[in-house]
Amino acid sequence: MTVQIAIAGVSGRMGRALIETVAADANCTLYAAIDRPASPLLGSDPGAAWGRVSNVRVTDLPAVALQGAHVLIDFTRPEASLGYLDACVAAGVPLVIGTTGFDEKGKASIAAAACHVPVVFAPNMSVGVNLLMKLAELAAQVLEDGYDIEIIEAHHRHKVDAPSGTALGLGQAVARALHRDLAQCAVYGREGVTGERDPQSIGFATVRGGDIVGDHTLLFAGIGERVELTHKASSRATFAQGALRAAKWLQGRTPGLYDMRDVLNLK
Ligand code: NAD
Questions:
Q1: Entry pTM
Q2: Is residue 121 within 8 Å of 99, Cβ to Cβ?
Q3: What is the CATH code of the structural domain delimited by 3-125+236-263?
Q4: What percent of the chain has pLDDT over 90?
Q5: Listing from the earlier edge strand, what are the strands of the sheet with 256-258?
Q6: Which of 7, 85, 100 is the best mutation target for the ligand 1 pocket, counting ligand atoms within 8 Å of the beta carbon and taking the most?
Q7: At the topology level of CATH, where does 127-233 sit?
Q8: Which of 23, 41, 115, 139 reaches 20 to 30 Å from 162, CA-CA?
């Protein structure tokens, strides 16, 4: 079966990556392209600018666009995503939400909508990063105490927050596996006379520069050996690939709130 994909936020960076990814997948077709009311792309072929000609025209009417769609993939802004969520419930269309930055009320709305349609909601859709999380847990469980844990991340010069959400997620995964409280044991950077390393601490180091899409290394430094787990993202295609995998996985699912660990069978 060809999965008929609707994409919200087609003028954005992730929207473009999704159009490319859907166009390159023989098992999917671009069914609808949605963007904000003021979008300059309204009425145009969303892929034309990137040589991906289609019969689809960009619309700001999700209720109309979703009729007949098998799934909506949304990478926009929280306030926009919540509107698309309502439209998906009304149309009975499953939803993949990659948008980040929801407050608690927004997250509760997503959970409520998931009682009516299946939803995959994940702050990082990269298959490799989700695997890294699982490997981090496993490594911590096997290595236990006695290995010093450091998390090193690198991102492009425009990133405004540190450490990255993924680095913090790795820290949480490892801390949970070792029954430590990350809020108590995290050390964010070191300078001056720091004293010896607390063996219970989990250290974070941040690099910023150039156009690095996102590198994460989890280091377990023991006596006589080191284990390093590294993931390097080289383009946004990784997130689009993961979102498409989630969109396919949602076909035939019962309503519920899922994340990438469900999609990848990592639970
Ligand atoms: P972007 O700014 O390039 O694009 C945003 C898109 O949302 C645009 O198409 C814009 O027209 C649309 N939009 C903005 N406000 C809107 C509104 N009020 N109504 C309707 N549409 C609106 O951003 P991006 O880099 O493509 O990222 C989009 C989102 O995806 C962000 O929240 C980002 O953090 C998140 N993201 C998540 C992952 C993941 O793996 N889950 C990966 C990358 C980015």
A1: 0.91
A2: no
A3: 3.40.50.720
A4: 93
A5: 58-59, 28-34, 3-8, 71-74, 95-97, 118-121, 256-258
A6: 100
A7: Dihydrodipicolinate Reductase; domain 2 (3.30.360)
A8: 139
